[in-house]
């Protein structure tokens, strides 16, 4: 796509970027008075990535904002402009001549491209608008005969809670009904009993942290109020395509909890104080109970751990007797082939394989013949130079996500062999490669699906002679 002229918005004003460029130029390892210097980076409204060598704080003191105040001020200038323009994230690259003349190219945004992680290069290319990786589309399997745990005891639960919280203010039936209407689900009886005893509203505690702590101790978690309840379905666990496509969900026959990203039957009602959410599970695994309490880790994107067979057990501090991590003997649905893991594609191949990642390798490149025709293979990522023949990818008819190096993508594009089954794609870039050819390659891939291109805006300015 042709370069565009800068817009009238402040994000398109060279002066907005000048402090950032001066910092990058001053810290550039490539700086040389006899030739041009190239710098690049990414700035978003919530984070940024700049190749700067920051000064270490004095021994015995942690780094503070003051230690990088010049960088913070320069970035904030750009971030204000991004906010004014309604743009979340922009990558850039600049070429600075010894004379101080600078040509700055802003790369993006595009609604079809996710931001790169710690890099100015594009992230995942979303080829089908609104598409989601397969684990995020997976719904719970019905479990015939699933019932509440025998330990669920409404009278015992209410009695224990009222003894522990005699002064608590409970929710009214109207408040409970309103919460059910908002969520679109009927709350299980144990959860209703809990909220009839305490509605866990901060204003009811009159800013008394000790009262709030007593509620948490009584229940066994930091309880959300009724307005804070939410359905922990797949949309509540957002994950970028490059990472989400590498996940594979699995529910062994002896599992108490289904290994999902999320479920319309997971009602999140509390927090363990460390960012992990507790939920009532109405869609249990084959060995689970309806109404069991599960924990969703904030460090993981799939699955949940069984905490208690019922809310009654949670309040009475009776851990579940079911194993929380069933051990199965089935081959993994996601396989990694590299110098530290599996040593061949053949070793990874089996009918249930969904994800194949070929990483760093120091021997002959691999053939994809062993995985051709596998019915469930949907994700392939390959480190540059690890494929003997990239055109073998054309035989993988069910691919949804493909991540390759620039040369491998070039082979597929030139042969018109890019799989049309793809929902998203990514380009592996290692080292300090110029973002411009990578953006051009990304735009070629996007064009095959008639997706919005990565915009390129050219700004020119003067930074003064390079020292």
Order of helices and strands: HEEHEEEHHHHHEEHEEEEHEHEEEHEHE
Q: Helix/strand/pairing class, anyone?
A: alpha+beta
Across the major sheet, the strand order is: 5-16-15-14-13-12
Low-confidence stretches: 4-8
| Share of helical residues | 10-25%
Q: Based on DSSP secondary structure assignment, what is the total number of beta strands?
A: 17
**Number of continuous helical runs:** 12
Task: Average the pLDDT over all residues and give the rounded result.
Answer: 91
Describe what you observe in this structure:
With 467 residues, this protein is α+β, with helices and mostly antiparallel strands. It has helices spanning 14-27, 69-85, 134-137, 154-164, 173-183, 189-197, 209-219, 241-244, 311-315, 345-348, 406-414, 435-448, and strands at residues 37-44, 48-50, 89-96, 101-107, 125-126, 222-223, 230-231, 266-271, 277-281, 292-296, 305-308, 334-337, 355-358, 379-382, 401-404, 424-427, 456-462. A six-stranded mixed beta sheet has the order 5-16-15-14-13-12. Strands 6, 7, 8, 9, 10 and 11 form a six-stranded antiparallel beta sheet that branches. A hairpin with a 4-residue loop joins β3 (89-96) and β4 (101-107). The longest helix is centred in the first third of the chain and has 17 residues, at 69-85. The radius of gyration is 27 Å and the shape is globular.
Compact overview of the structure:
With 467 residues, this protein is of the alpha+beta class. 24% of the residues lie in helices and 17% in strands. The longest helix is centred in the first third of the chain and has 17 residues, at 69-85.
